[in-house]
Amino acid sequence: MSTSSTAFFSILKRDLILAYRHRSELINPLLFFIIVVSLFPLAISPESKELRMIAPGVIWVAALLAAMLSLDNLFRSDFEDGSLEQLALTTHALPLLVLAKVCAHWLVTGLPLILLAPLLGVLLFLPAESMLTLVLTLTLGTPILSLVGAIGVALTVGLRRGGILLSLLVLPLYIPVLIFASNAVTVAGSGFPVAGQLYFLAALLTLSLTLSPFATAAALRISLS
Amino acid sequence: MNIFKVIWAFLHKFASPKYFYTVSRYFIAVFGVLCFGLMTTGLYFALFNSPPDYQQGESYRIMYIHVPAAWMSMFIYMVMAVASAIGLVWQIKLADIMAASSAPIGAWFAFLALATGSLWGKPMWGTWWVWDARLTSELILLFLYLGIIALNSAIEDKRTAARASTILTLVGVVNIPIIHYSVVWWNTLHQGSSINVLKGTSSIHIDMLIPLLLMALAFKFFYFSVVLMRARCEVLSRERNTRWVQEWVADQAR
């Protein structure tokens, strides 16, 4: 095993262990996700016909907000205790280490969202045909949210009031994902093929997977300087 | 000495803040005059000397503001992206200043395009706003501008702010092709593009095309002169601790 992949996996393991030690913090975005989704039947109407119509959008918007809220933990504690500086000083490529951190973050925040989403789909009377598409779009989409969000976090981590600014920077970049994903789920409910939208999401995932670690690493270096 | 060397030498000289400050005054004057001339002739042709549209009557004339403003909102973003990239690679301070001073102007052009589009949409489509792909992506562009402005003002150190917004600008460049092709990809209510300069297959009458291009040029020169004005102020405030600014201020006070 080469040294780069050792570095990648040791960062991944470290972040997963850290996340496991702070289990209660991991639950919060999930609870937020569930509560936001359950507000819609109360606010709009408990009728199954209307809920079925808005379900794809509601689940996706809630997932997007939950992903954004959880982003703040990505670099914050490492930035404050100085370990981020140590990471930047190692001989390994910083984009690779950033990718490891984002992977760990996605495993502990994105993956539970995907597992939880079908349950919420049932609560909102989402048609059975859309369920698989919902899971597929979330599988392709939530890594994009983590990867793109990482750029925003890296830019704002050094600022005292980064929270609101983060949403202003990151949400516009999330919009294409939201459009393609919720459209795919809606279309799948009517029984039409959704391969086109899924290909677009896959293309966006490839783009963000290859480019975002470099942008994030550059942004981190700026925040650390 | 070949022509590139001359241009390079000029650009290098131009990028020094002091030289820029003294020379840009003349550029502003020239661009301002050009903008005024083009805009008055353009508006004259647009409002009095071009035929009404066979379908939309007189109300299509808002196009002469709407289309150039939409073009400018994308053009300025590309200028910002190129300036940021130059600032990132060659560490030229003036490029950072240009990018930072362009953002508010671009945001206003995006807003103008959306506002005039909505005014045009009311009589034509019967609604102020539709969630059409073109409109939505222009709105995203406006949000991107606002995000860049917010990031720029949130970071106190100007140098760090410039480098941070460079990254955000370059990431946001992905949105520009989406706006451009949105009409081709999802053709909903917004009409397709009528002008194709490269292929020469514009589906617009020449009497309408000429004022439109005049207005587009006028908007370009408006941007050039205003961005130079903003950049001049920015140069003065960033270089306030250098000797030439202090001497200049002392000169003014005398």
Structural commentary:
The complex is a heterodimer of chains A (225) and B (254). By secondary structure, chain A is mainly α. Chain A has nine helices and no strands. Chain A has helices spanning 3-21, 23-43, 48-71, 76-81, 83-89, 94-123, 128-156, 162-189, 195-224. In chain A, helix 2 runs antiparallel to helix 3, helix 3 packs parallel to helix 7 and helix 3 (48-71) packs antiparallel against helix 8 (162-189). Chain B has a single domain (19-253), classed as Four Helix Bundle (Hemerythrin (Met), subunit A) (Up-down Bundle), CATH 1.20.120. The longest helix of chain B is centred in the middle third of the chain and has 33 residues, at 93-125. Chain B has 254 residues and is an all-alpha fold. The interface between A and B is medium-sized, with 23 and 21 residues.
Task: Report a brief summary of the structure.
Chain A is mainly α. Chain A contains nine helices and no strands. In chain B, α2 (17-47) packs antiparallel against α8 (206-238), α4 (93-125) runs antiparallel to α5 (133-154) and α5 runs antiparallel to α6.
Name the features:
heterodimer; A: mainly alpha; about 0% strand; B: about 250 residues; Four Helix Bundle (Hemerythrin (Met), subunit A)
Total DSSP E strands of chain A: 0
What fraction of the residues of chain B are assigned to beta strands by DSSP? under 5%
- Rg of chain A over CA atoms, rounded to whole Å, is 18 Å
Choose one word for the global shape of chain B. globular
Low-confidence stretches of chain B: none
Structural class of chain B: mainly alpha
Question: Which structural class do you get from the secondary structure elements of chain A?
Answer: mainly alpha
Enumerate how many helices of chain B there are, as a single number: 9
Total helical segments of chain A = 9
Largest sheet of chain B: none
Q: Which oligomerization state do the chains in this entry correspond to?
A: heterodimer
